[in-house]
Design brief:
The complex is a heterodimer of chains A (206) and B (198). Chain A is built from eight helices and no strands. Chain A has 206 residues and is mostly helical. Chain A folds into two domains: 42 residues, no CATH class; 149 residues. By secondary structure, chain B is mainly alpha-helical. Chain B is elongated, with a radius of gyration of 19 Å. Chain B has ten helices and no strands. The chains are: A mainly alpha (206), B mainly alpha (198).
């Protein structure tokens, strides 16, 4: 009776039960198999190291700058939206201000919170995406990967927003919604950028 | 056993601090230090130079985004390696979502495709021939030195999944490789002797 690979691997990695080592000490077949596993690991560690093309950093630095520009634009947009909301609240407060002799209107009813602004911005960006004709287009592998990466990250944020963790704090919820809005904005930009690139053809999506 | 693949280069605190503040020259310095191990990891896990290139870009974009939150618990290189592995594994998951078999099920142990290999492969070819997730587990555990617990966190699977993928992958490679061991020792010793003699 010889040992399974999993037991021999545990022994190779110093994680096996003592009886496994005792068996190998008295079993030439298992000892040979263990040596084979060690040899494979040595060979793997000795494989040649592949490096990137020499000029790759320039492309990555350009992508970093593009992402930063997108974030700056988003922050500017959010600030503008917040300013509009403040004006809206001010107008609402003026309109709803209690006249002498009337019951006071609930000022809290008219308050627009930062969280609600972010949720609103998120819905708006989703509408932009849904309104675009994204099907039937060919993307370069890098654009497609970037878009799928953004979609994955949005899904992770959604999972956290809808997840089993009880009672996200308001600050945590705001941070997650801000992440979601930033990711959606980058996604809108990615689709827009790819729509304008020569590689963006209306043939088929792959 | 495993010694890692270049992710443990030292980074000075000044460069790290500048990178955290968004200084692109400092990030370029990190790139010069870690680009090769990141690219190599992407190449070994995903298999193609194009995907390794994408893993490299996605990893450094993530480094720029997230380094302000890197708290310095553990080596920076270990953190960058986790980011790179996560990016590569996301690609493998995407392939699995598109219907590609990326892990080794027990029922897959002996397939016509395996038996059709009528010549001995070398270790590099055998690794490349493994399905994606099994290949990733072998590389991350046997070469990068990650524990099964760390691999479980990265893959979103259990430790026992990681252990079984490793065992099945080695069993599969065992068929393709024939017996390594004494003869590999001998060939390495011959190479070493040859090198000394030159």
């Amino acid at each position: 009776m010889h040992l399974e690979s999993e037991e021999l691997l545990a022994l190779r990695d110093g994680e096996a039960r003592p009886e496994v080592a005792a068996h190998v000490a008295g079993c030439p077949a298992c000892a040979a198999e263990l040596e084979h596993l060690r040899a494979v690991a040595r060979e793997l560690a000795g494989l040649p190291v592949a490096g990137p093309p020499a000029d790759r950093w320039a492309t990555i630095a350009a992508a970093v700058e593009a992402e930063r520009r997108g974030r700056r634009r988003l922050r500017t947009g959010l600030a503008a939206a917040a300013a509009v909301a403040v004006v809206g609240v001010a107008i609402a407060a003026l309109v709803l201000a209690p006249r002498p002799g009337t019951r006071a209107a609930g000022a809290g009813d008219a308050a627009v919170s930062d969280l609600e602004q972010l949720i609103g911005a998120s819905h708006q960006l989703e509408s932009v995406l849904q309104g675009s004709e994204l099907e039937g287009r060919v993307l370069s592998s890098r654009d497609a990967a970037w878009i799928v990466d953004l979609e994955d990250r949005i899904a992770l944020v959604d999972a956290r927003l809808a997840g089993p963790e009880p009672g996200l704090s308001r600050e945590q919820a705001v941070a997650l919604w801000l992440d979601r809005v930033e990711l959606l904005d980058a996604l809108v930009e990615a689709h827009g950028a790819t729509a304008n690139s020569p590689a963006f053809q209306r043939v088929s999506y792959q | 056993m495993a010694v890692g693949t270049g992710f443990f280069a030292e980074v000075d605190e000044v460069t790290l601090g500048r990178a955290r503040r968004g200084d692109l020259d400092a990030v370029a310095s990190l790139y010069r230090t870690f680009a090769t191990p990141v690219y190599n990891l992407g190449r070994r896990l995903c298999g193609s130079p194009e995907e390794a290139d994408d893993v490299l870009q996605e990893t450094f974009l993530e480094v720029v985004r997230s380094i302000p939150r890197f708290r310095g618990e553990g080596a920076l290189g270990a953190w960058i390696r986790r980011v790179a592995a996560s990016k590569a594994l996301t690609r493998l998951r995407r392939r699995a979502g598109a219907g590609e078999a990326t892990d080794l099920a027990e029922a897959d142990e002996f397939t016509a495709r395996d038996l059709a290999v009528d010549h001995r492969l070398d270790v590099e070819a055998a690794l490349a021939r493994l399905p994606g997730t099994a290949r990733a587990v072998v590389w991350l555990h046997d070469v990068e030195g990650l524990t099964h617990a760390e691999i479980a966190l990265l893959t979103g699977k259990s430790e026992s999944f990681s252990k079984s993928q490793l065992a099945r992958a080695h069993a599969r490679m065992r068929q393709w490789l024939g017996r390594l061991g004494s003869e590999v020792h001998a060939s390495r010793e011959r190479r070493a002797v040859g090198a000394e003699g030159r």
